[in-house]
User: Which sequence fits this backbone?
């Protein structure tokens, strides 16, 4: 539907579960989901880290209403 915005109301657990599935599908045994936290009412922050030492690999910002994510530098 054009112009219609989703209101998924994603929780930190929803985002974590999605990223865990994504990592499982990618087949990379060296990464895992790190901290997933609420940044504000609209945004969840999620880290992908290494399995040995929890070094940050990538940080994502997820819009909890639409599910759209972007890489955070």
Assistant:
């Amino acid at each position: 539907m054009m112009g219609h915005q989703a209101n998924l109301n994603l929780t930190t657990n929803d985002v974590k579960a999605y990223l865990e599935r994504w990592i499982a599908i990618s087949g990379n045994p060296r990464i895992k989901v790190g901290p997933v936290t609420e940044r504000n009412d609209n945004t969840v922050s999620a880290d992908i880290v290494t399995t040995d030492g929890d070094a940050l690999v990538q940080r994502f910002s997820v819009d909890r209403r639409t599910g759209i994510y972007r890489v955070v530098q």
Remarks:
- Residues 62 and 69 are 4 Å apart (CA to CA).
- The chain has one domain: 12-72.
